[in-house]
Amino acid sequence: MSLQIRRPCDILVLSLIVLTIVSGCSGRRITTAVEDQAFRAGPSPAPVDEAAKVVPPIRVEEPEVRVAEQPVASVPPAIPAPPPAEPPAELSDVYFDFDRYAIRADARSALKRNADLLKTQPNQALVIEGYCDERGTSAYNLVLGERRAQAAKRSLQDLGLTLSQIQITSYGKERPFCTEHSEACWQSNRRTHFRQP
Amino acid sequence: MTHVLIRLIGGMGLVTLVGCAGTGEVIPLRLHVVPTGTEKAVEPAEPPKVAIGEFEDGRSVQTGLGVRTHLWGGVSYFDVPGGKPTETVAHLLADYLAAKGLNVLKQGSTERADIVLTGKILELFVHAKSRVGFTEMTTKTKLAIHTKNSSDESIVRMTLNGAGSEHVFWFDPEDLEEVVNEVLTDSFGKLVQDTTVVNRMLRLKTP
Questions:
Q1: Closest C-alpha to B132, from B22, B9, B21, B19
Q2: Reduced to 3 DSSP states, what percent helix, strand and coil does chain B have, rounded to the nearest 5?
Q3: Which residue in B1, B6, B160 has the most chain A C-beta atoms within 10 A of its own C-beta, making it the best mutation to test that interface?
Q4: How far is A92 from chain B (nearest CA, A)?
């Protein structure tokens, strides 16, 4: 039996069917991505601080774990905080060079002041937050921020501060102090911030 | 005679192309990870012990995985066997990490884990829409993974996004399973790619 196709409309119908079949067989597309990454160091970082062993971990709850999805929106507390009982003296930020976590010479005086102030409040907990500028990946900056915070912690230890209540955390480039794209702005973002919870 | 034959073939082809109406049945999707490559995430000598904790279901719609809409109307539903995607995803992650060389503890194990992984399914859906001549399958996943290192209590968090799509001429649930499997496998691969194990602790990899 031979199949003869003579009429143009028959050819058209068959062509459409073939075309439909062919067009329906496109390839598979798979895309995956990491939306955000975050790292929070534990209360006593493992690789350093031999003198500071046997430090009981302070409250290991999860308040500081940050997720880039809602980084800033949930920050402001609805209730105006009661007037802070802290003295007017404030802990100074410490700034870093680009892509570095070594404590600069000009930061030592600030760290000394911070240490002196903290020694007067031995029972007060301290959180050291590491920040970076916007250059580099989120993952890289999270690690860099953690190292900056660790460096600041070590310096405070060298200045005679007990580390039992110091917690470090890294925000990487996720919470910039300044959002402009200039060197001055980036410098202000490359810092560790000291906070008393 | 020839014309009749052509029309008959055309008619049968049309029926074949558009498929049948949906009956509301539930189509189980048997998911499994398919790790590619033989490289291991850790040295085989001393892999860290990993425990997979609970996964939460954070999806806005927590029933099933999705639907197939048929050209002639009606729908079928997709779900995992057992109807608990959280358990399925946790198992898949465990399988993947085990395939990558980590020592994944069995559920209920009393051994102390070096790394504890928990997570939340933010999105996990599949969809198949039949059109004339093909069925379009899509899937989207979003998993928030939370890792806690026991030794220093540090935490690594990561959100894994995945999406996949494919057009098939003849819909078969196995094709959809393959798409979802590939997306989940790729997503778990990102978790392994972007982290490293240091002293039995999971760390973000520095580029």
A1: B19
A2: 25, 40, 35
A3: B6
A4: 26
**Alpha-carbon distances of A89 from A84, A114, B124, rounded to whole Å:** 12, 9, 51
What is the value of ipTM here, to two decimals?
0.72
Residues 158-177 of B with CB under 8 A from A: 158-169
Nearest to B180 by CA among B52, B66, B101: B66
pLDDT digits (tens, 9 = 90+) for A155-176: 998 888 876 778 888 888 888 8
Nearest residue to A92 via CA among A118, A71, A72: A118
**A33 torsion bin: left (phi>0), alpha (psi -120 to 50), beta (else):** beta
- The CA distance from B53 to A167, in Å, is 26
H-helix or E-strand spanning residue B195? strand B195-198
State the CB neighbour count (10 A cutoff) for residue A90: 12
Residue A137: predicted pLDDT: 84
When the pLDDT of each residue in chain B is averaged and rounded to a whole number, the result is: 84
Residue A53 touches chain B, beta carbons under 8 Å? no
Q: What would the mean pLDDT of A77-86 be, rounded to a whole number?
A: 42
| Tokens coding B93 | 């992650």
**Distance (Å, rounded) from C-alpha A70 to C-alpha A76?**
12
Residue A55, Cα to own-chain centre: how many angstroms? 25
Would you tell me which residues 115-154 of chain A have a C-beta closer than 8 angstroms to some C-beta of chain B?
136-137, 139-140, 142-143
Tell whether A22 lies on the interface with B, counting CB pairs under 8 A. Answer: no
What whole-number distance in Å separates Cα of residue A58 and Cα of residue A164? Answer: 8
The model's pTM is 0.56
Q: Is B69 helix (H, G, I), strand (E, B) or coil?
A: strand
**Beta carbons of A13 and A118 less than 8 angstroms apart:** no
- Closest C-alpha among A49, A50, A64 to residue A130: A64
A24-79 pLDDT tens trace:
455 778 877 777 677 777 654 433 333 323 233 333 333 333 333 333 333 344 44
Cα angle value B88/B145/A136 (rounded, 5°): 145
Q: What is the pLDDT of residue B65?
A: 92
